[in-house]
Specification:
The protein is an alpha+beta fold and 289 residues long. The protein is built from eight helices and 14 strands. The longest helix has 19 residues. A hairpin with an 8-residue loop joins strand 8 and strand 9. Helix 6 crosses helix 7. Strands 1, 2, 3, 4, 8, 9, 10 and 11 form an eight-stranded mixed beta sheet that branches. The chain has a three-stranded mixed beta sheet with strand order 5-7-6, with no helix packed on it.
Length: 289
């Protein structure tokens, strides 16, 4: 039985076009995604959403809340709790503190926009409680519409961004043959007490809390569709017995970018992700796999 690896049918043609010089790679846009965890009783559960089938990119695939970096979030300092911006710049291997702030802001903003969970508080040691009231929802919708930047939202609310509640886990870059490319930083975080998730994303038709090992098993059975970074991080999370264990292990995770490679071997296309052999695809000249 085939697994649930997302594999668009146009990839072979795009790979060949790239190899022949007919396709110029798009510049990746920085993005962030968050693996939000909670204690499920018998181990941690992760919050996942299913992208609407109508979505041009990865329609029907299960993923985590996430999205692109907003350039407006690096133009002034926000109230900040946790490791310094310089520490984050080093951990994320980015050029400067402003870039690090924008990436961390994207992680917190997207978790709020798509899951209704806000990793911020009125002091460096606290987190806001329930965010489902009408005034919070109006702010969330303004963020989704990009009517306001996340930095401005935090300022107006007088909130500290709790970077200490996040931990960097992995970094994956969309293959060069994809028309839209992202340089995505994966973070892990625990659901704050007093908050609850909901399907707040216009791009998702379903959300679930699921044990990482169960999600991986359902992927292996072909039941859940996922992109390589999603299933790779799920398998990694399966090793930990609680959200706190996973957060504690994040510092040892390799943040070197993972970028798919494509090569020709005797007329056959070979698509691989370094360090992740399970995703290797061999594509015959006629497109058969």
């Amino acid at each position: 039985m085939a697994n649930g690896q997302w594999y668009p049918p146009e990839w072979p043609d795009r790979i060949r076009a790239l190899a022949s010089g007919e396709l110029t790679p798009a510049t990746p846009r920085r993005a962030a995604t968050v693996m939000l965890l909670r204690d499920g009783g018998s181990g941690p559960e992760v919050h996942m959403l299913r992208r609407r089938a109508s979505m041009a990119f990865a329609g029907g695939a299960y993923a985590y809340p996430g999205g692109g970096v907003d350039p407006r979030d690096d133009d002034h300092l926000v109230r900040w709790a946790g490791p310094t911006r310089a520490w984050w710049a080093a951990r994320l291997s980015v050029d400067d503190e402003a870039a690090a702030q924008a990436i961390v802001c994207a992680a917190v903003r997207e978790t709020y926009e798509e899951a209704g969970v806000l990793l911020a508080g009125p002091t460096p040691e606290t987190v806001v409680g329930d965010t489902t009231s009408e005034d919070w929802e109006a702010d969330r919708e303004a963020l989704v519409a990009r009517d306001v930047s996340f930095a401005d939202f935090l300022d107006r609310r007088g909130l500290f961004l709790r970077s200490d509640l996040l931990a960097a886990w992995a970094r994956w870059i969309t293959p060069e043959f994809e028309p839209k490319r992202y340089d995505t930083f994966f973070f892990v975080a625990a659901l704050p007490a007093g908050q609850r998730t909901r399907n707040a994303s216009t791009e998702a038709d379903r959300t679930v809390w699921i044990r990482p090992a169960e999600a991986a098993a359902r992927y292996d059975e072909g039941e859940l569709l996922m992109m390589p970074p999603t299933i790779a991080t799920l398998r990694a999370l399966s090793a930990y017995g609680s959200p706190s264990e996973a957060l504690g292990a994040a510092g040892a995770q390799d943040m070197a970018p993972v970028l798919a490679q494509a090569r020709l071997e005797g007329g056959e296309l070979v698509l691989s992700w370094p360090g992740h052999g399970e995703f290797t695809k061999r594509i015959a000249p006629d497109g058969a796999r």
